[in-house]
Amino acid sequence: MAPDYTTFQTEDFVLDESFQAFVAGSDAAAVQFWQRWLAEHPAQQPAAEQAQQLVLMLGQARQPVTSAQRKAQDLQRLRRAIRQPQPAPMLRTQGLRRKRLVAGALLFLLVLGAGFWLWPAAGLQRVQYATLGGEQRAVQLPDGSVVVLNGNSRLTTAANWDAQSPREVWLEGEAFFRVSHLTRVPNLPVAQATGNAKFVVHAGELNVSVLGTTFNVINRPDGFNKVTLNSGKVLVEHTSLLSHDALLMAPGELVEFTPVRHTLAKHAVAPEAFSAWASGTLVFDHTPMPEIIRLFRDTYGLEVVVADPALLRQTVTGTLPNKSADVLLKALSKSMGIRTERHGNQVHLLPLN
């Protein structure tokens, strides 16, 4: 007997196998049925749309290699967490409590499912590369790709890569990527790539997918996430609880995530300016002082103290060396007409007089 879909809530749609097949497009009959049914029941469309977003998010979660028994146990545990027994008629407060429980269970499902996508699977052998403040390090990956890590950064990868899985890395900090192109299919869209043809950088709130190209990624604290593309194509995705944003980049574009609005924004830039650090220089173009202070904190591990608030309103334009924090401070003080004093990891910016 078919379920009464008119009584379904978001969590019911998520757990329904026919609805999952409709979202995935893996069953033509399910697709045809749900398209017709949703058109005939507009009142259920909001819940179905939310469920569709959840199913899509879970579909992006790449499950780790586990035994069939482990997968079955996980599925059973998730179903128990989400499904509640049909109770007797409830008071309004009881219904609210059930909705909160269901919402929490759905969030648990998302975290459990998407967590494997956002971080290497538990038990999987990993390799980590890290840099100290002000240090840079070039790393060659198993596929021949080269990654240059900026200061205070860390790159995590699986120890062994195979042809059946995407090439994945997890970045904390900043890195410049030169990714090897492995696909033999001409003009293959990034989103359609399978196996190791796709290279994915997981950077905080963002997933950055490419086939083979050069680009710069920043994943710093406080939700500071940026991607700039030098060559090729890049697909940048951000997934939240009920939404999925994706932007396809062309060379000369920057995509950033703004945590206040929780959206992706794209701008035209000179990408060489954002990756110049990997060649030993920093390019500033009317760069506000707060951004430079953040650079010293994130890349060099230095705390900058500004004596005169007027200095915070200044901007910097020019090309400065970045191999040493002290050399950079000296060049910065000369270009801005200020004094700098360093005491350990603390730097004071002072007016000349």
TrEMBL record:
The chain crosses the membrane at residues 101-119. It holds the Pfam family FecR. InterPro entries: FecR (IPR006860), FecR_C (IPR032508), Ferrdict_sens_TM (IPR012373). Keywords: Membrane, Transmembrane, Transmembrane helix. Residues 129-234 form the FecR protein domain. Residues 282-348 form the Protein FecR C-terminal domain. This is FecR domain-containing protein. It comes from Hymenobacter mellowenesis.
